[in-house]
Amino acid sequence: MKLGELADILPHDGVLSDDMTFSGVQSDSRHVTTGDIFFALPGVKTDGARFAEDAAARGAAAVVAEPGSIGGALAIPVIESSDPRRALALCAARFHPGQPETMVAVTGTSGKTSVASFARQIWEQAGLSAASIGTTGVVAPNRDEYGELTTPDPIALHKLLKELAEDGVTHGAMEASSHGLSQRRVDGVRLAAAGFTNLGRDHMDYHPTVEHYHQSKMRLFDTLLPAGAPAVVFADDEWSEATMNAVKAAGRELRTVGRKGAFLTLKRVEHERHRQRAEVEHRGRIYEIGLPLAGDFQIANALVAAGLAIATGLAADQALAALEQLKGASGRLELVGTTAEGAQVYVDYAHKPDALKNVLLAVRPFTTGRVVVVFGCGGDRDRGKRAIMGSIAAELADIAIVTDDNPRSEEPATIRRAILQAAPNAREIGDRREAIRSAISMLKAGDTLIVAGKGHEHGQEIAGRKHHFSDHEEVRKALGEQTA
Ligand SMILES: CC(=O)N[C@H]1[C@@H](OP(=O)(O)OP(=O)(O)OC[C@H]2O[C@@H](n3ccc(=O)[nH]c3=O)[C@H](O)[C@@H]2O)O[C@H](CO)[C@@H](O)[C@@H]1O[C@H](C)C(=O)N[C@@H](C)C(=O)N[C@H](CCC(=O)O)C(=O)O
Ligand SMILES: Nc1ncnc2c1ncn2[C@@H]1O[C@H](COP(=O)(O)OP(=O)(O)OP(=O)(O)O)[C@@H](O)[C@H]1O
Ligand SMILES: N[C@H](CCC[C@H](N)C(=O)O)C(=O)O
Ligand SMILES: [Mg+2]
């Protein structure tokens, strides 16, 4: 690709020739091959500008960097950009052209994975070729691959979107994490609609204040969503109003869903054990929906997903009828087994305060006995959430067992101590396998156990090393031992 074809993204005032040719885009010098443009990104751990020379030595044709960030003489031209991350995303989209025609993105503290998965399922049921991209990976026809990031980096993302489009995928739903949004990973995606679920405490190790965190999410609506495109906003959250205001101020089409929603209005919900019945109004018509999932929050997620499908052109009848067949995303309040006496054991990905609170509240209506929770907190992540999660468990569970999540490089006992400080009556069993086994052995008829924090994960990272570990497998094993 010639520089002239990228001139709108990389203005260079005619200093360089428009005929300069590039073979690819790269943001990690270690992966540069001859002819690439190297984007020197200021990062969290280091500054890409320090690797410009390395990139040049590996054959980069030019470097894109913030003004003044490259010190000294470099053998290759430097193209200045005030926002090299955005420039990278836009160039990646151009180097790997082609995206599913209808792309939607969802943001929020909780529910993104579920909404992306539900939107894909709604489209699939309508006979469309659809994909979802997020924490649990990429799911598309003939494809189910696990990825490292919730929102892939722009180079990987655009290679993926191109492949999906070439495979005939016309509809795609992706998660826009706050890291992904603030790092411009989604800037090159052509969005038909965007969704918002909720906002709670998260990533306070990355964002200085909750307002900053909200702001970083609003980029999805005020910068990435084209003017006039629909924004589907869950209306019943504490941050819904601020989000609606941001959407309106940016001149996007507001579509609200939920009890206070106008586009899809939740009129009534009845909880049954594994399912719930809801009455939803859309354009003056009432729809009766049987959602085959437990948990109030799944209704919210289902409404955001249906809202996105309808707002991008699917008939409401089809979208709402599809909710009857939804399958939960792996490890999201997933019923993994039942003890001989009939106590239910769920695996759930709640690893932040609001999610833990919601999940414990969600199972209470159908728990006739005790609510038992096994959970921990990840190391090298927001320390402030530990005590908050401890007090939520102390308040909302009858029995709490504090165990290890992914301690990463931290001392596991220190993490547990921070949680236990706010949950003095909780039991402490560091070994997660042992904690699950012990919790299952104490269950009686009518009890519900939630194994929280790791959801779909297949590994546990201890002292920087990843070991195979699955909450699903451990629950099944412990249930098996019990009946053996
Ligand atoms: C904190 C964070 O978000 N980091 C992400 C970020 O890295 P960074 O740019 O800050 O990296 P850095 O290490 O400081 O390096 C700066 C630059 O120098 C370059 N470099 C570095 C070394 C070298 O030899 N040569 C070289 O060119 C790097 O490639 C980089 O471009 O940009 C990278 C490329 O997009 C990401 O892979 C990386 O994700 C790391 C691995 C990560 O763990 N991110 C997590 C926190 C994350 O993003 N999570 C969210 C979801 C969270 C949630 O909702 O729960 C997600 O979307 O997954
Ligand atoms: N709408 C919601 N409101 C509150 N809590 C929710 C909601 N949806 C899901 N949860 C809780 O959050 C957990 C994670 O859900 P999900 O994976 O769908 O969210 P996410 O936004 O993708 O999270 P992450 O950023 O960790 O990937 C669930 O296991 C459940 O405990
Ligand atoms: N994307 C999240 C996942 C956290 C999952 C939880 N099990 C933990 O390790 O804290 C993160 O990396 O912060
Ligand atoms: Mg997710």
UniProtKB/TrEMBL annotation:
EC numbers for this chain: 6.3.2.13
Keywords, comma-separated and alphabetical: ATP-binding, Cell cycle, Cell division, Cell shape, Cell wall biogenesis/degradation, Cytoplasm, Ligase, Magnesium, Nucleotide-binding, Peptidoglycan synthesis
Cofactor requirement: Mg(2+)
Keyword Cytoplasm: yes
All residue ranges annotated as the Mur ligase C-terminal domain in the record: 331-455
All copies of domain Mur ligase central, residue ranges: 106-309
Recorded superkingdom: Bacteria
Gene Ontology terms, MF aspect: UDP-N-acetylmuramoylalanyl-D-glutamate-2,6-diaminopimelate ligase activity
Residues binding ATP: 108-114
Subcellular locations according to the entry: Cytoplasm
Binding site for meso-2,6-diaminopimelate: 381, 405-408, 453, 457
Chief location: cytoplasm
Xref: SUPFAM superfamilies: MurD-like peptide ligases, catalytic domain, MurD-like peptide ligases, peptide-binding domain, MurE/MurF N-terminal domain
Catalytic reaction equation(s): UDP-N-acetyl-alpha-D-muramoyl-L-alanyl-D-glutamate + meso-2,6-diaminopimelate + ATP = UDP-N-acetyl-alpha-D-muramoyl-L-alanyl-gamma-D-glutamyl-meso-2,6-diaminopimelate + ADP + phosphate + H(+)
Disordered: annotated span: 461-484
Xref: InterPro entries: Mur-like_cat_sf, Mur_ligase_C, Mur_ligase_C_dom_sf, Mur_ligase_cen, Mur_ligase_N, MurE/MurF_N, UDP-N-AcMur-Glu-dNH2Pim_ligase
Sequence motif Meso-diaminopimelate recognition motif, location on chain: 405-408
Enzyme class: ligase
Modified residues (N6-carboxylysine): 217
Domain called Mur ligase N-terminal catalytic: residue spans: 22-94
Keyword Ligase included in the entry's annotation: yes
Metabolic or biological pathway: Cell wall biogenesis; peptidoglycan biosynthesis
Task performed by this protein: Catalyzes the addition of meso-diaminopimelic acid to the nucleotide precursor UDP-N-acetylmuramoyl-L-alanyl-D-glutamate (UMAG) in the biosynthesis of bacterial cell-wall peptidoglycan.
Sequence similarity: Belongs to the MurCDEF family. MurE subfamily.
Protein name in the entry: UDP-N-acetylmuramoyl-L-alanyl-D-glutamate--2,6-diaminopimelate ligase
